[in-house]
Here is the input.
Amino acid sequence: MLRLAWARSSSKNSRVDPARLLSIVLLGGDNKSRASLSMASGSEGQGSPPSTPQRPPNRLGQERSPYLLQHAHNPVDWYPWGQEAFDKARSEDKPIFLSVGYSTCHWCHVMERESFEDEEIGKTLSDNFVCIKVDREERPDVDKVYMTFVQATSGGGGWPMSVWLTPDLRPFIGGTYFPPKDSGRRPGLKTVLTRIMEQWQDNREALESSGERVIEALKKGTSIAANPGETPPPAHDVANRCFVQLAHSYEEEYGGFRDAPKFPSPVNLMFLMSFWSVNRSSTEGSEALQMTLHTLRMMALGGIHDHVSQGFHRYSTDSSWHVPHFEKMLYDQAQLAVAYISAFQVSGEQVFADVARDILLYVSRDLSDKSGGFYSAEDADSLPAAGGSEKREGAFCVWMGSEVRELLPVVVEGATGGATEADIFMHHYGVKEQGNVDMEQDPHGELQGQNVLIVRYSVELTAARFGLSVIKVSELLASARAKMAEVRKSRPAPHLDTKMLASWNGLMLSGFARVGAVLDDKALLERAVQAAGFLKEHLWDAERQIMLRSCYRGDEMEVEQGVSPIAGFLDDYAYVICGLLDLYEATLQPEWLRWGEELQDRQDLLFWDAEGGGYYCSDPTDPTVLLRLKQDQDGAEPSANSVSALNLLRLSHYTGRKDWSQRSQQLLAAFSDRLTRVPIALPEMVRGLMANHYTLKQIVICGQRDHLLFLSDGETEGYLYQRLPILSSLTCQGGSATAYVCEDFTCALPVTDPQELRRLLLE
Here is the structure.
């Protein structure tokens, strides 16, 4: 049964001393292990047939967030996060029920169907609490504060997140998913609400003092700052320790860094490639590269990779990358595109370039707005093609053996044993008549009899098995995938979250710019320029000189802003600046470098901690955000501080501003303890530390526009010449394109031979 108890944090990632943190919390609240069971149930969700007649919309009907709109017809008196809700809680002296999620969150859909659509629960919530609904992707600041509380007091976290607050926004009880009724040892939401109402009446002082103590403990435990005079830790030692920690967690058979569930973790892969680049001749360097390339190959072969409609799903529920959680997130596509094109650069293997292009094909087709922006996500759940009102995990993506046979019945001329196209396809992609999903990956039977495509054999082996040429089999498989893609178009599509976030659009800008530059693909570069133009037109408030967090696709397919536009957070600035630098390097159009410099100035003004170093995740002057956090972990997305460490260094070399190089050092010093003890938590920041240590090279090409990094074209009144007077002294030799390789603008002798330039760069 539910009870109130003193609890200590058991989270292995918690930076709060568990011996000092005591809080009244609900035992039995959900944790992240529950969230990992995202293939369960799936019978609900957004877009399911509405009740008849549909209830009139609540306040959320005025919002633009797809997640908030999913709750607009709940029998709950929801408020968006804002002053109106805070004032109501104070004037009526009621506790706040804060519910946080996002539109493609499976268990958020479950809790909505089971609890928030329940009339009795809706009345209890509305009569006794001020109910606030938050889209975590719109308000990551709110999400981070209260998720820090939930993780510290319950030992885990996940979404939906359910937290109860005092009228002054201090949390006193938290959890994640609650079923409507008690289930075994798990308390139901009805029980939880009853107990909280009783405690609010009978034990309020203890609840409030508990919330106060927790917040004060979290303020101390999450503080990140450099000591006076502190410098960054030794890059060589930190990088080696990060490599050792990653190697220890590496799973050798299928790649990746844990058994299951298994996440792509692009930040790990990018670090390993950087580590290899400065340790090429060592055993450790070779091992780092092998770990990276093997992981990327196995992911590309696995079911986490959509072999029919391209792109990557969120994560794999098993160790072999076979059965995914089928949600597709923009930030995954962006980072994986960069990881795959980087692998192509270091290995020369065409398969990596093909996968990078494959990812961008998916994003261009399915996640792109005509304005140039990118949508946030595609849901895992959808209605089955065979009919029915209950959504199922992966229904849009999976195949029955009989479907494949019906679609590909033609006997292939010359194939061994009179094999059909279906025989060859099913052999290659592991399709079985009875389905290929193990029960362990399908605890609720949603995928029974279904197949998730996974490459089981190389094209060469498949060709040999059926006595065909490699070219013939490659053509056959491509044709089959195209036919299956057409079938998919007739299936009920999963929900598309058409919210456009500045941060994730910045990541995707980098993806198109980097891939376009490496492949010399003008169409991809034009798409990158279009994305940058979208960011400037729709998510940059020129009057207030701030980034905006989000905008939305309207009913008429136009771009809309919310009722109260949300000011951008640190990641909105950091990711966009990185994207602009990548775009400048790809196009040599100085307007993007100039805007990147302007945004960095604004980021410094809004988020920099002048006392302790590093950047706060959100506006440190906002009184409604109780913790001033500096994200100290590179997870599904890199920490904005990690990205900023490299942004500052790159900008200092492009603009000659030494203060930014110094600021990068100060940022790294602030995270010195974390970098020294557990660098595996910050692999992207370790890359920034390495870049500071090994010194970036400046490559100046005089005379022609179709080269990289710096173009010195003689326009002495131009942006770069004003920032870097040294460029005026760098000239063409003998009328030919001339390269200068410099460090801190001390340049080697000019070269006009490409092979000589290559030699200089490899030294």
